[in-house]
Design a protein that fits this description.
Blueprint: H1 2-22, E1 23-28, E2 31-36, E3 48-54, E4 71-75, E5 84-85, E6 95-99, E7 106-111, E8 118-127, E9 132-137, E10 146-153, E11 156-160, E12 166-171, E13 178-185, E14 190-195, E15 198-205, E16 216-221, E17 227-238
Antiparallel strand pairs: 1-2, 3-17, 4-7, 5-6, 6-17, 7-16, 8-13, 8-17, 9-10, 9-16, 10-11, 11-12, 13-14, 14-15
This protein binds calcium ion.
The site of calcium ion (CA) has 10 residues, from loops.
């Protein structure tokens, strides 16, 4: 009887030892990752997390994409212009169109929950002229709630972080798609900017920015009333 008990105990120990050698559990910020111990050597702890992605393919043409969580804060040249269209696109067959008006901005937003102090956001923009762009803001703080954006103005692609710091990056050609990517570092209050995959601005530090952090991603066209097209928006964070 003692031998049987000992054998069972040994079997349990072997099974437990095997399991502990096989599986590894890694938990960080409420996310759990599980993988084989044999894979450890090839794993790096660079975990990216998508906040949202948008390609504007799932909406009826000539409608505002409210069903995707987008909110039209200002309607610029009129509701009829702030719609998904299929006469332009970067991916698929559709994209978003925005058109401002003199003294009345067109601005659409989508909520962003900050799960990390390191947020990346990118998208494709096709400007037909000046005065539009996208970025991260806190919609409750009109001045110091600007957490980094890129816009097209006076023939230049520019970036801004905080209320008082704007930098010219490069000239732009109207009616051409540009891939814009930003990285906002909330610990250091800095942005990095890539245009068409090339790092153009590094560690640009805000001089006036609220510690609250962003709560929306926004896209806009302002007073010059030019049409801006947006497609393939992606927002993500790093742990
Ligand atoms: Ca698309």
């Amino acid at each position: 009887m003692k031998q049987i008990t000992l054998t069972i105990l040994l079997l349990i120990l072997i099974v437990e030892f095997s399991f502990s050698q096989t599986m590894y559990i890694y938990t960080k910020n409420d996310s759990t990752y599980q993988f084989n111990l044999s894979e450890i050597d090839s794993i790096t702890f660079s975990v990216s997390n998508i906040i949202f992605e948008e390609n504007f393919e799932s909406y009826p043409v000539n409608t505002f994409p409210a069903s995707g969580g987008w909110f039209l804060r200002y309607n610029g040249a009129g509701d009829a212009y702030q719609v998904v269209i299929n006469s332009e696109h970067h991916s698929g067959s559709q994209c978003m169109q925005i058109k401002g008006a003199p003294n009345w901005t067109a601005q659409m937003e989508k909520s962003v929950i900050m799960n990390s102090n390191l947020i990346y956001y990118e998208g494709w923009i096709k400007p037909t002229g000046n005065d539009g762009g996208f970025g991260l803001i806190n919609s409750q703080i009109p001045t110091t709630g600007n957490y980094g954006g890129v816009f097209f103005d006076q023939g230049k692609i520019k970036c801004q972080v905080g209320y008082h710091l704007t930098v010219d990056i490069q000239d732009f050609i109207p009616n051409q798609w540009y891939q814009i990517k930003l990285r906002y570092d909330h610990d250091n209050k800095t942005i990095d900017v890539w245009i068409d995959g090339v790092l153009k601005v590094q560690s640009l530090k805000a001089i006036d920015i609220s510690p609250l952090g962003p709560n929306v991603f926004y896209m806009w066209s302002e007073h010059e009333g030019n049409i801006f097209y947006f497609d393939d928006i992606k927002i993500w964070y790093e742990l």
